[in-house]
Structure formats: structure tokens, C-alpha cells
Amino acid sequence: MNDAATENDIPAHLTASARDYASLLKPRVMSLSIFTAMVGMVVAPGPVPSWGLAVLSVIAIALGAGASAALNMWWDSDIDGRMARTAARPIPTGKVPAAEAFGLGIVLSALSVWLLALSGGYLAAGLLAVTIGFYVVVYSMLLKRRTPQNIVIGGAAGALPPVVGYAAVTGAAPLEAWLLFALIFIWTPPHFWALSLLKKGDYEAAGIPMLPNVKGDAVTREEIFRYSVALVVLAPMLAVAPLAGWLYAAAAIILGAEFLRRAYLLRRSPDNTGAGGLFGFSIFYLFALFLVLLIEHWAGFHG
């Protein structure tokens, strides 16, 4: 009995596990950043100068993504506790103090940029620094709580990893690399707005002005459809650039048709039926397109 009482008296943050600290880095979001950055490295022209340096570059980009997440959780810890989707995160539950999350984010930010400067060059390191700063300062601090366009503008941070990867291999960031950026940038609004239709109550409780809460469901569904049209038009255009080949073009057309079909059905649904399906499919859509790009270049189907 005394032992149990003693355990209950221990501050929560003193019993935090490695998993709690790892969750600060948002592993699922980090994995998408890592994957798109790797694809950016692979599709870059010419051979990879050194696979050892390439691995270090991927690690640096992963650390940068984790740093962004930790700093985002530090800044958003007050509203995370008011949202069912985020209430179990380590800071709202008291498992990890906000100050420790902030310190972890700052250390990882500096480490990631320094490591990428050594392995991938100054341009890639600079782009990574911009990515971290844009996500934390521009999106989290300036946009998220002020405008329903938070996802549109803030999506630039999530779209930068393939450009960082491309620059880490070539030392340059030409138009081809920015087409990869554009693909993710245009994908982001319909992806997150579909989720926001499902989580309106959460965002309302937290005071976050997501599009459904500010403009209503009908406007949100219309905007999802418009961005979906732009996305399915843009995606096959990568095959016109030196980035992709016929396999990617076919995948972009087929997957795009399904994406647009789901967006159209959601547009016509007054009760938001299909929002969850579109959200889930959007994740598969982006992963599949980048996977096909990877397969094309590794298997020699490109060009």
C-alpha cells in the first residue's frame, strides 16, 4: 500500500519513458518527411556522390523533422490538451515538461542543420533551417491560431523535404526539385481539410480557425474539390520534366482519377460522407506517387 502511494506521488515527468520522448518527434509525420526527402535524393540527376554522406543527410533531415515536431508540441501544448485527438500527447499529460520539449527541439534543430551542412552542403542545410523555422514560427506561431489559410500557407514546410534531399545530392535546387515541392504543397489542403471536417469539434474547442469552423462545411468541401482538381492536373506534369517517366505518369492519372472521384462525391455530400475515406486515400495517394518515382529511378524505368 505504501509502495503504491509512493509511486503515485512521483511527478509524471520523472516516470516518462523513451517512447514519450520519441512521440514528441511525431514519428508518423517524420516518416513521410524522410521518405519524400529520400525520393528527392534519388531522382536528382547524376549518381549519389557518397552513400555514406547520403545516409547522414537522411538522418539530418529526420532530426530536423523531429525538431520541428517537438517545438510545435511545446508551442501548442495549451491547445493540445483541449483536443481529443492530441490530449494524450506527452506535454498535456504531464509526462514531459514543456521546457524539456523546447530544449530537445532547439538541440535537434541545431544538430540537424550542422550535420546536413557537413554531409549535404550549405544549400541543403539552409533549406532545412528554413523548413524548421517556417513550420515553427510561420505556421505554428503566426498562422495556426489566426487564419483558416493556416494549412495552405503552412503547408510549405511539409513540402520542402524533397527539395532539401535534392539539394543534398546536387548542391542545387532547380525547377525540377520545386515541382516535387508543388505536388506536396497542393496536396496538403485537401488532405487536412478532409480531416478538419471530421474534427470540427476539436478545433472549435481549441479555438483554431480551421476552414469548416470559419467558412462552413459547404465552402470547405468546395475548396477541397478545387484543390483536388489542381492536384490531379499538376501531378502528371512531373513526367514532362526530367523527373519522371511513363510509369509515374500512368500512376498519377489513375490515382488522380480516384482522388478526384472521392473529392467530387464529398463535394455533393451535405453530411460530409466520404471525408474520412478521402483523408485516408490522400495519404496512400502521396505515398504511392513518391514510391513509383523511387521505383522508376532504381529500376531504370525512368527516361
UniProtKB/TrEMBL annotation:
Q: How does it sit in the membrane?
A: Multi-pass membrane protein
Pathway field of the UniProt record reads: Porphyrin-containing compound metabolism; heme O biosynthesis; heme O from protoheme: step 1/1
PROSITE patterns in the cross-refs = UBIA
Q: Which GO terms describe its molecular function?
A: protoheme IX farnesyltransferase activity
- Name any GO cellular component annotation: plasma membrane
Could you list the residue ranges that cross the membrane? 29-48, 54-75, 96-116, 122-142, 163-187, 224-257, 278-299
Return the similarity comment: Belongs to the UbiA prenyltransferase family. Protoheme IX farnesyltransferase subfamily.
Instruction: Quote the protein name from its UniProt record.
Output: Protoheme IX farnesyltransferase
Gene that produces this protein: ctaB
